[in-house]
Q: What sequence folds into this?
C-alpha cells in the first residue's frame, strides 16, 4: 500500500534502502527511476536483468562480496590463535539460500588452509543458538556470523550469549561491534550510501538507470572492540590493531 502511494506521488527518483522495498516499488512502476541498496543478488531478486546492464528503471548497489567469507576465519584465527573449529551461524530456513552457501564455501576454503574445521547451523529462535553450540561440544570454538536479518535483529541477545560463553566471534557488520561484539569485517555501509547518492545525482541530471550498472562493494572495514577482547581474555595483536579501521575502547 505504501509503495503504491509513493509511486502515485510521481517523484523524480526513489531510493530503496533494501531489496524488499525496491521490489515492491519496482512492481508498481516501470517509469520512475529506482536506486536500491543492500541487495544480496539483484538478478535473483528480480531487480535487474543483469549486473552490468540493468535494462530497466532500476539499478543500485549490493552488499554481497563472497570473498569476505575467506577473510573471516583468517582474522578470527589471528585474534584468537587457539581456535581450531568454526561454527557458522545462519538464521532461519529462508536465509539458507544460494548466497549463504556461497559464503560458506569461501569460509571452508580459507579454514582448510588454517587446519580449522567448519560446521554450519541454522537457527530459528534465540534459544537454539546456545543449545546447538553446547550440543556440538567442540573445544577451542570460534563463531562466524555472515549477513543475516535474524542475527542482526537479535544481536544484543546473541552478543550477550557468546560473551558469556567466552566464544571469540566475528560479524559481517560494524553495528555488532558497536553493540559489544568482538570484531567485524565487512562492507563500509556509509560509503555505499554515498555511492547511491551519486547515482541519484546522475539520474536527476538525466542519466537513465539502464545505463548505470549495478555495483558490488568496493570499500571494507575492520572494527575491533578492545573492551570485549579483554572480557574474553584475548590480547589483540599489534599487527591486527594497526590494520583496524576503527578500534572501540
A:
Amino acid at each position: 500500500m505504501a509503495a503504491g502511494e509513493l509511486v502515485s506521488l510521481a517523484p523524480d527518483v526513489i531510493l530503496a534502502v533494501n531489496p524488499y522495498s525496491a521490489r515492491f516499488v519496482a512492481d508498481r512502476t516501470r517509469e520512475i527511476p529506482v536506486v536500491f541498496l543492500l541487495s544480496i543478488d539483484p538478478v535473483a531478486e528480480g531487480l535487474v536483468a543483469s549486473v552490468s546492464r540493468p535494462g530497466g528503471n532500476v539499478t543500485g548497489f549490493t552488499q554481497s562480496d563472497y570473498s569476505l567469507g575467506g577473510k573471516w576465519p583468517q582474522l578470527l584465527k589471528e585474534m584468537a590463535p587457539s581456535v581450531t573449529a568454526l561454527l557458522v551461524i545462519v538464521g532461519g530456513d529462508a536465509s539458507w539460500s544460494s548466497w549463504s552457501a556461497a559464503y560458506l564455501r569461501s569460509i571452508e576454503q580459507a579454514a582448510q588452509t588454517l587446519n580449522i574445521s567448519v560446521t554450519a547451523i541454522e537457527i530459528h529462535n534465540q534459544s537454539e543458538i546456545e543449545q546447538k553450540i553446547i550440543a556440538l561440544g567442540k573445544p577451542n570454538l570460534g563463531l562466524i556470523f555472515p549477513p543475516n536479518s535474524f542475527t542482526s535483529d537479535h544481536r544484543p541477545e546473541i552478543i550477550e550469549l557468546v560473551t558469556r560463553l567466552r566464544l571469540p566471534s566475528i560479524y559481517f557488520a560494524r553495528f555488532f561491534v558497536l553493540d559489544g561484539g568482538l570484531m567485524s569485517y565487512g562492507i563500509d555501509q556509509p560509503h555505499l550510501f554515498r555511492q547511491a547518492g551519486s547515482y541519484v545525482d546522475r539520474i536527476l541530471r538525466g542519466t537513465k538507470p539502464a545505463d548505470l550498472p549495478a555495483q558490488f562493494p568496493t570499500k571494507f572495514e575492520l572494527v575491533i572492540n578492545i573492551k570485549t577482547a579483554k572480557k574474553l581474555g584475548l590480547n589483540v595483536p599489534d599487527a591486527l590493531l594497526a590494520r583496524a579501521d576503527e578500534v572501540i575502547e
The first strand starts at residue 14 and ends at 16. The domain at 2-62+189-218 is CATH 3.40.50.2300 (Rossmann fold).
